[in-house]
Every structure is written in structure tokens, then in C-alpha cells.
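name: query_chain
kind: protein
chains: 1
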Amino acid sequence: MLALVVLYLVALLILGLIAERSGRKDPEGYFLAGRSFKPILLFFTMAATNFSAFFFLGFSGYAYSYGFGEYGVMALGTAFMPIMFYIIGRKAWKLGKEKGYATAPELIGGEMDSRTLRLLVMAVMVIFTLPYLAVQAVGAGLIINALSGTDALLGAVVVTIVIGIYVSLGGMRASGWTDVLQGILMFSAMLMAGIFIANALGGFEAAGESAYSAYPEFFKRDRMFSVGVWISFIVLWIFADPMFPQLFSRFYTAKNEKSLKLTMIVYPFLISFLFLIPVLVGVWARGTGLQVDAPNQVMIVMVQNYTPAWVFYLVMLGALSALMSTADSQLFSISSMAVRDTNIGRRFGEVRTGIVMTWMIVAGIILYTIYFFNSSSEIMTFLIKNSFSGLAILSPVFLAALYWRRTGRMSAVLSIILGETYVLLSWGGMTPATGFLDGVVALSISAASLVVLSYAEDFLGRHRRALHGNP
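structure:
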């Protein structure tokens, strides 16, 4: 099966080369694919970018541990995400075309006229995205090891280098085109897994009945997910996902507003359907009496036990695609911010600097994977677990910058700092129990402080002007 992995990686490299030869060589062509993505391409790149290996391995593992409640918080929250895609994404697309924005920090800095705020937003996005990216590489190595027996560290390094090659070659265009291939693979793999496993268990109804007989509590909402937790997940999904830099950058790439609208309409329906399959597999596994060492193994073991070998290979390749489609987008978004939101690109040329920064990040990821396979890091674990909370805190500032003229620059900075401080305190167990996830409490603190401080900043500003005789 090593040949299958090699063939897949070569296909990605070929797409990257074609993207390089067909795309514009100027900064807008490299960083935004010339703002040319039509509906189908935009949908696939948004969906594939948002689907990491958690879609294949994590969802089924959580359902195996906690039951159908997992579907409610994950699928429902994700289905609501397009609301914010429309509210923030449509405005970002318009401003991007008018003012040439290419990154999220660039927009916030431009609209708020604040270099400090721009750099702070960039720092938060990088801090909470880079560890997530590094873990994708580690996961890719583990999947290649399961597929072909290749050393996991070697597999992680090779995948990281391949991503670096096609991303640096074709920029956003290569990232988008490879997302289409990866999206088709992962969607097909998940669909095949669900169909074949259900058939082997006697059909969807029989599989569900067996699981219900064994664990009826898995079909009740209150097994794990209280109303507060449900609300928390939905809120975090809605407010955090648009703040992931790899997703935000996709708003700028739409060819027109129609592309954005169609993506927002189709996204919740297809995603809600696809998310159901791994949850079903996780619950069905209980009906079979399956025992695993770790919940994340459930999907792999179920596919091995109840599907033909070719379906197993397709599912593993789909999981690898999910990892890589997220990783390449994260890599490109971080390198784009490093170029566009600092003075480096202006001095040495944006496209050339973007390529150099991509490979510097690739080198860092490789060093991390080497470190990972020899030890562990608590700070990395914290950043990964709190990535949604840390990024959600940015959303009040973006909403205010786009829709509320009273927003103060210093108030925006302080609201982010206060929200992130609460996230840090929650990690140390220094926050009270509220019935909601700590990330939602932090988001509320950030939003409330932004409003209060902005009014105070506005009042002080008017008072100061009055003292100096300026109305």
C-alpha cells in the first residue's frame, strides 16, 4: 500500500505544479488565487480546510465514549457556522476587493487604523494555529504507518515536505485545487465506510437496534451533554471557525458574492449529513461489543472488521486527505500573515518572502514532529485544546470593526487580552464552574468588555476634545 500513498502524494505535487504554471505571479495571484474561486471550488476548499482527521477518528471515538449527543453538539454547531460566514465573510470579501486585504489581521488593522491591534490579532492566530498544524503532520505520519508500515516519523516528515512543495509552488491556487481532490477522497471514503459497515451489521436499523440493546443510555441527550454544554459548543463553533486564519482567507478568494452565498447555503446540509456517519459508526461499535485501547481507533477497527480491504485503504487515505487539506491551508495562512502583516514582504518581495516563510515553517514543523515522537509538551497540548476558545475571542472585535463605528482601538486590544487571560486561567483550574464551557465565558468577557470599554473610551475622547475646545 506504500505505492498508493506515493501515487496520492505525487498527484498533489502535480496539481501544485499545474497551479504554479497557470496562476498569476503577482501577490494577489499567489496569496488569493486572483480572487477567482467559483462556487464548487470555494465550497470544497472551505469544507476540506475545516475537516481535519478529527472528522474520521475523533467523531467516532467520542460517539463510542458518549453516545449520540456528540452528533448534536458537533453537527448542529457546524451547521450554524455559515451564519457567521455570511455576517463576517461577505463583508470581508467586499472590503478585500475594495482595499486589497488578503489576511484577517490586515483587515482589522486597516478598518481600525491600528498597527498594534493588527499585530496582536496576528499573534493570537499564529499561536493557536501553529500547534494545530504541527499535530496534523504527526497524525499524517501515524496514518502512513498504519497504511504501509513506514516509520511514523519518516511519514510525517515526507508529508510535511510534500505540502511545503505544492503550497510554495502554487500558493492559494494550489491549496484550493488540492482541497478539491482531498475533499472528494474524504467524502467518498466516509460514505463508503458507513454503507459497508451498516450492510455487514444487517442494515442501518439492525445496527442501531443492537447498539440500543447494549447501551440504551447512548441514545439519551443527558448522558454527557447538558443544555449548557450544547449551547457552548454551538456558540464556539459559530464564533471560532471564521477566526481560523485558513478559513478567513477563503472569504477573500471568492470570485463574486454568488460564490459565497451558494457555499453558505450548501455547507450546512452536506456537513450535517456527513457528520452523522462517523457518529453512527461509533455508536454501532458498542452494539458489536468492540473493545479498543483508545477511542480514536474505533473507526479504523470497525472498517478493518466489517469492510473489504479496499474500503479500509480508501478510508485511511481519506483520513490522510483530511489532515493534509487542513495542514496545507494552515501553513499557507500563517506564511501569508508573516508576509503581509509585517514589513518583511515589502523589503524583499511578497511572493518570494512567502515561499521562504513557508519553508521556514515547514522546518519548524519537522523539528516539532521529531520532538513529539521523543517526548510531549504541555504548552502545546494547552494551545491545541484551547484553539477554538482562543480564536473565538477575536470575533467580537471583528464584528465591531465591521459593524460598530463606536469601537475604540485600545478597547479592542484590552478585550482580546482579557478574554485570552481567562482562557489561560481556565487551563490552571482558576475559573469558577458556570455550566458552560470556559471558552464561552471567555468570549462573553471579551464581548462585554469591548462594549463597556468602547463607550468609556468614546466618552473620555469627547471630554478631552471639549477641554481643548474641539467639539
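note: The mean pLDDT is 88.
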